Amino acid sequence: MWLAVPAVVLVSVIAYLAWHGYLVPAVDVQTAKVSLTYPSRPLTTLNASGYVVAQRKAAVSSKATGRLEKLYVEEGKRVKTGDVLGVLENADLKATLEEAQAALKVAHAALRNAEAELHDATLNLNRQKSLRESGAVSVQAFDTAEARYKKALASETSARFGVNRVEASIKVAEVNLEYSYIRAPFDGVILTKNADVGEVVAPFGASTNSKAAVATMADMDSIMVEVDVAESSLEKAKVGDAAEIRLDAYPADRFPGTVHMIVPTADRSKATVLTKVKFDRLDPKVLPEMSAKVAFLSRPLKEDEHKPFLGISAACLKQKNGVYSALKVNKDHVKSATVEVGRKWNDTFEILSGLKEGDVVVLSSAKDLKEGRRVNVKE
């Protein structure tokens, strides 16, 4: 009787081991984890990385050389086309302009005097002509009147040219004075301030210790993402295709974009082609020189496809009589779970119920597994 007890225990142990699959070797399987993913991920045909770059950017400098007297900019300030960013010392240029304006008044006065003299000489000549025809004046008197008229006409012409010359000198003085004002060439945002009041500013920074640029600015409406696409993958990127932009600074955000340009030249050292992707909607928090990653998509995303969903590869699911199921790994065994699926993006299903985030399911195996089978997960 006492010998029967160990036999019963042995049978129970064997039954337990057989039920849990310990009497057969574990099956090697590959697994996938149920996780939140974005619709763009299964639609991605190509990934590339690069930087946000302003397509219109300028280092604003002066055309004249001088000491910076005033500076009206700071980093982040928005400016309009023609706004004065800085002023060079220009008292001498203002004095030159005022001198030219005064000279213009003198020239106009001389012109009026010459016009009056011409008018008088013209009247006198006409009288002399009438008297000459009647024989009332001598030839000498007529010749004197005619000579006076010609001299007055030449003086009036000279005075008129004098006015034109002074007006031209005023334009030169105005241009020289305008060169002392440093203006914004387009609407944009100041990125850096490169000079301070009191420093010498010179074109091209030719002078010793002089600054070539007062400020650097960019048109924030022209920002795009520039990425390098490998030559072997270039056929997957076409102008007009949809794309999704991710910035390292904002990892939780996704920005819709469109392939704007494929630069028609390759970089032989990297075997890549520069590709520009524009933002469909500009966001003020996107700044030039930010690191970015671009996913080129097989089709544009719909309005309801911008939020993450619980997804799994179609290879993890089995379908029978319209019902989907998956083998969920529980420690070293598998357990069948009925799964309710939603939309499908290429080879990825949306999971509505039956699985939760973090669950590990069998992706592939060498045998047709059944529930309870012991498995060995391959890394």
Tell me about this structure:
The protein has helices at residues 4-19, 40-43, 91-134, 139-178; strands at residues 27-33, 35-37, 44-54, 57-60, 66-71, 78-79, 84-88, 181-183, 188-193, 200-201, 215-218, 223-230, 242-247, 250-267, 272-279, 291-297, 309-313, 318-320, 323-330, 333-345, 348-353, 360-365, 375-377. With 379 residues, the chain is α+β, with helices and mostly antiparallel strands. Helix 3 (91-134) packs antiparallel against helix 4 (139-178). The two termini are 50 Å apart. It contains 4 helices and 23 strands. It has 4 domains: 23-38 and 308-377, conserved putative lor/sdh protein from methanococcus maripaludis s2 fold, CATH 2.40.420; 43-55 and 222-297, Elongation Factor Tu (Ef-tu), domain 3, CATH 2.40.30; 61-88 and 180-218, OB fold (Dihydrolipoamide Acetyltransferase, E2P) (Beta Barrel); 91-177. The strands form 5 sheets. Strands 2-17-21-20-19-18 form a 6-stranded antiparallel sheet. Helix content is 27%, strand content 38%. The mean pLDDT is 85. Strand 13 and strand 14 form a beta hairpin.
Task: Write the SSE topology.
Blueprint (H helix, E strand, L loop, with lengths): L3 H16 L7 E7 L1 E3 L2 H4 E11 L2 E4 L5 E6 L6 E2 L4 E5 L2 H44 L4 H40 L2 E3 L4 E6 L6 E2 L13 E4 L4 E8 L11 E6 L2 E18 L4 E8 L11 E7 L11 E5 L4 E3 L2 E8 L2 E13 L2 E6 L6 E6 L9 E3 L2
Parallel strand pairs: 1-23
Antiparallel strand pairs: 1-22, 2-17, 3-12, 3-16, 4-11, 5-7, 5-10, 6-9, 7-8, 9-11, 12-15, 13-14, 13-16, 14-15, 17-21, 18-19, 19-20, 20-21
Helix pairs in contact: 3-4
